[in-house]
Write the structure tokens for this entry.
Amino acid sequence: MLHPLEELRDSALSYITSAADEHVLEALRVQYLGRNGSIALWGEQMRALSKEERPIVGKLLNEARNAVTAALAETGERLRAANEANALADIDISLPGTVAELGALHPLTQMLDRAIAIFRRMGFALAEGPDVETEWYCFDALNTAPDHPARNEQDTFYLPDGRLLRTHTSTVQIHTMQQAPPPIRVIAPGAAFRRDEVDATHSAQFHQIEGLYVDEDVSVADLKGTLEFFLRELLGPETEIRFRPHYFPFTEPSFEIDVKSKALRGGEKWLELCGSGMVHPAVFEEVNRARGDEAYDAEKYTGFAFGMGMDRLAMILFDIPDIRLFAGNDLRFLRQFA
Ligand code: PHE
């Protein structure tokens, strides 16, 4: 004759192995192994048993618990596997898969990255400023008179609140000097915006790398050496550069810099690349005023600054015929640089 515990075990096993799904199985687990389940109740009754009976019942109880636990685990596993198989049965494995397309860097980003890497080797840190600016950062602090043509509505995108889209990255010169005293050695790559007539070589948004170097005894020779080294690293050792006198309100003297290199398409022609010059003392003065100190003492410090146009350089280096392609979002164009 079977002991009631053996009967309990057998009926539990038959229910468990025939459970139809995981919910039923969970209910059975609670019914048998739960805190108030049948097996727990038997455990409590043990105390009432005699010394002789206790080990026998204890052994049966253990066997029952182990058998039920094992059956629950096994059935659970079987139900899970069946579920998975059902889910997979709904998938048509003959359909073509989804290809994960890999992205690549935009040609202008590649151009900027190359330039940044060279300047970093010369000890230039990265600086940045916002695209939306006040007139003070874009013009006043840069010694640009209120009637300067660049401030004209026709050249600058003004916002209704009087702010504007920066017309050059020279704004970052001011942000940088406001934030830290000399010495300063930074470059600031970024976008600039002008209301140009848009055509193959003019875009309302273009890109510059601004450079600013302020320390004791910085001279035009440092400017020249820095840019010459940069361009020869970028375009090869035979690259030539040329300084032409120019005018910018925020530098004195000011130069435009042209470059000629075999690496550039159209080889022997000079390419106008860069505005530059020695930081005007009036700029230091305005920065001091904003800082409320005399950190930029024009008697002690000098500096050079430059603003290099990157779009045309990239166009010539990568043989891109139209500046509008940069912002056209055409994958046929972009894939050529992946
Ligand atoms: N900001 C000037 C421009 O965009 C270039 C420049 C930068 C000139 C720094 C001098 C010094 O044309």
User: Anything to note?
Assistant: The mean pLDDT is 92. The CA atoms of residues 129 and 175 lie 7 Å apart. The first strand starts at residue 125 and ends at 126. The longest helix spans residues 53-89.
